[in-house]
Write a structure and sequence with these properties.
10% strand; mainly alpha; three-stranded mixed β-sheet; 314 residues; 9 helices
């Protein structure tokens, strides 16, 4: 029985190693695709904005260009997070991915501020008659941008969920914010072409709001994972039920969970028959440990403490 458990733990460690390789490989592949797409798209939108005389499209091009930098940051964060634990970092490096997500949110917010301030300046000045009327090319570029960025969002999000990457998910929502900003650009450009030039600048201001919201969401999610935030109630309930499924466990005195990067750490105190020997109690603790590890792949570390049932009832 002991031998089987040892084999299971070795396989679990191997599975985790393969999972870490898959994590980094997937992140690199997705990032390479999005970098290439963003470079081409930002160049196209910048040219369309200049030729088509649209400040909204130029702002959108800057937004897309910032995506290239953000994806590079994601790559660096994922690479560092995938490093194996060492003497100085025995619990691993997963939180470095959260650091990358925080840096990304700040870049996103600062990019939005630059766009918003320029748009606000044009609106406040009030010389709407002097504002250029965007050309048809800018309108076409906005439509193309919406389609491409939405496709990139869906592609990145699917892979982020697959490997449970906070930084990659942040990059996915960056793509979605770019798609939404392109919708704002489309409305602004269309309005300007219909005889309301200020609509182009107003669209840039709306783009800033979308960017700021995306930056806040990314920042909040990353900070939650940095400060040992507990798992959601549903996950904790599932862990509770998994522990109680062992017929030798008479109750749970404590169950604590914490999110460490994209992994979960669990501390649990179980009650067992106080007349059992130390060896028997240890066997039960191992069974509980292995069942949790088997049922929850995201859990990286489990600490099982055994309390005698009689002592807990006093």
């Amino acid at each position: 029985m002991k031998e089987k458990r040892r084999v299971k733990r070795k396989m679990s460690a191997g599975d985790r190693y393969i999972s870490e390789i898959t994590f980094e490989t997937t992140a690199k592949r997705v990032s390479a695709v999005t970098i290439a797409g963003n470079i081409l798209l930002s160049i196209f939108k910048l040219v369309a904005g200049i030729i088509g005389r649209s400040s909204a499209m130029i702002s959108d091009a800057i937004h897309s260009a910032s995506d290239v930098l953000s994806t590079v940051i994601v790559l660096i964060g994922v690479k560092l997070a995938a490093k194996q634990p060492d003497k100085e970092h025995p619990y691993g490096h997963e939180r470095l991915e959260c650091v990358a997500a925080i840096v990304l949110s700040m870049i996103l917010f600062l990019t939005g501020c630059g766009i918003g301030l320029k748009a606000l300046e044009d609106i406040i000045e009030g010389n709407y008659a002097l504002l250029p009327i965007p050309g048809l090319l800018s309108l076409i570029a906005a439509v193309v941008s919406i389609a491409v960025k939405e496709a990139m969002f869906r592609y990145t999000k699917i892979n982020a969920v697959k490997i449970d990457s906070a930084a990659l998910m942040a990059d996915a929502w960056h793509h979605r914010s770019d798609a939404l900003s392109s919708i704002g650009a489309l409305i602004g450009i269309a309005g300007a072409r219909l005889g309301f030039p200020v609509m182009d600048s107003a669209a840039s201001l709306v783009i800033f709001l979308f960017i700021a919201k995306a930056a806040y969401d990314i920042f909040k999610d990353a900070v939650d994972k940095m400060v040992d935030h507990s798992c959601d109630e549903k996950t904790e309930q599932q862990i509770y039920e998994c522990v109680m499924s062992n017929r030798e466990v008479q109750g749970i005195d404590l169950l604590h969970t914490r999110i460490f990067g994209n992994k979960i750490y669990v501390d649990v105190e179980i009650r067992v028959n106080g007349n059992y020997t130390l060896v028997q109690a240890h066997e039960i603790a191992e069974e509980v440990h292995d069942s949790i590890e088997s049922d929850f792949p995201k859990i990286k570390h489990i600490m099982v403490h055994v309390n005698p049932a009689e002592m807990s009832e006093k």
